[in-house]
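Predict structure. Chain length: 454.
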Amino acid sequence: MKTINRIISLCALSILFFTACEKDEDAIPNSVPVIETASITPNTFTFGDSVTITAKISDAIKSLSVLDVQAIINGRTVSIQKILLDGNIAQVNQKIFIPLIDNVSDNTPVSFVLKAANSKNSLATTELTGFTGNRPYFARLYLAVENGGVYQLTPQAGNRDNYEILDVVISKSFTYKIAQKITADNKIDYTGLVWGSVNGKVQMVNESEDGIFGFASGADYTSSVIFNNYNFKTSFSGNAYSTPNLLLENFTETNISGEEFYTLDISLTEGEEIALYNELAAMNIVYNMDFFDRINANKVKFLGITGDYTLYYNKTRQHVVLLPVTSPSYPDYLLITGGGLGYPSKIAKEHTWWGFGNIRDFILTRKIAANVYQATFYIHEKDDGWVAFKIYENTGWGGEKFYNDFTYTGLTLEGESGNPASNIFPSAEMGEGVFRLTINLNTNIINVSRVTLP
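Prediction complete.
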């Protein structure tokens, strides 16, 4: 009981102590800060750059808390920076960023309002005048589409406030930011100017703020973008989809051997050009190099036999491969399976293993002439350092071809040690890389060459 009484007494004393402190603090007279000196240099600057503020601020009684710097631009008050202060005397010497705002011309008069506050929010205010702001102009800007790539905007002839990109393929609606700089891996570099959305208004933003919503009205996709750096407005034009085309929305998501694929059953005609849209137009994607010629970012040409196929888009490895709907077999196709092979990719290596269970198990060849076939694939060492493959006429392991069935030109292929008539191996001179095999069953010659990805 004595202990409880002691605790209650201590609490009461504490309350009385803090109450007394508050009364003592309130009893101290208030004061007003004094901005003794203040300057901003230089007098002429470019919006989007930094200037230096130098100031001495004091308060005879109360502790200083903050210096609020505002700019008056075209009659609009723009918050620049709040600089934290401490103690009764503060010396300020630091860079402050002057944002670019919309509808501001060259040689715009600018003034700065400084508001110094103490711990009781008493204010001292002063205004610095005689400054001039100029507009920035750029050799290029970048349209950074959320989850959709980066596109370079260049100044429009006759209007250097307009930055445009023409003949592009982007979704008809998307979220984006405009950036002055990008990084080496195509990300926005926030050390430069970035335009985004704050409360629905386009202005300078940082990484945590939102992008802008864009929409090409009455179109299937956006084909041109013009950003006006004076009024912060973007205009969009669009077109209807060309046919035939590849759109990811028409594919079906599936899982093959633990990886995410998108598949599409499609009829393809030899020699036809196919338009690519949205994600499938990305230049990182490698379209099967034996069956497609990448004409440009937005189009491929089909090189195979006219017929029905299933396309397989691997989102992890960023490549598109295909199989005929009917099981591939000689004389239209040859098949290559083994360990340490894979369809080419710019993003992630893969390797097959012996079998024909799914698209990841084997490489499909294209018939380029009577009894002549072509296959392009990546070769790399498996974890156990062993790479080997063989050629077959069908997925039932039929028509097996052996190393000793052929002679070789170009780069060297080798036979299995101790059993030279069986598996085929890359030679040491080949190393890792993308290689093309041209298999001629008329002459029983295989030519091996190194290939550069498009």
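Summary: Confidence is low (pLDDT under 50) at residues 1-23.
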